[in-house]
Amino acid sequence: MEQIQSIIESIKNLNQENLVYFRNWFEEYIQTSFNQKQDEHESKIWDSLLENSQDQLENLAKKAIQEYREGKTISIGIDEL
Questions:
Q1: Taking the chain, what is the end-to-end CA distance rounded to the nearest angstrom?
Q2: What is the pLDDT of residues 46-59, one digit of tens each?
Q3: DSSP label at 68?
Q4: Rounded to an integer, what distance in angstroms lies between the CA atom of residue 42 and that of residue 47?
Q5: Cα–Cα distance list, 17 to 22, 53, 57, 72, 73 (Å)
Q6: Cα(17)–Cα(10) distance, rounded to whole angstroms?
């Protein structure tokens, strides 16, 4: 905590030009750090979803084939789209 207080006091003592420089640097630092962590988090979520989706996709495919064989499907005219 003492180190943080020292940083705060140092920031308070910056002149206008240095304060603007620090603020710009800090905003970019926060944005970059946040984006990297967010990207890593989203990647982990997608990886998890894809790893766990194989069984679900297989079940959906089996259900679709069964419904097709039972005549429960209709043609949607793919060639006409």
A1: 65
A2: 888 778 778 888 88
A3: H
A4: 9
A5: 9, 54, 58, 72, 69
A6: 14
What pLDDT score was predicted for residue 16? Answer: 94
Show me where the domains of the chain are located: 2-73
Q: What's residue 80's pLDDT?
A: 66
Q: Residue 55 is which amino acid?
A: D
Q: What is the pLDDT of residues 1-49, one digit of tens each?
A: 789 899 999 999 999 999 999 999 988 888 887 777 777 888 887 888 7
DSSP 15-46: -HHHHHHHHHHHHHHHHHHHHHHHHHHHHHHH
Name the token pair of 74. 């209709």
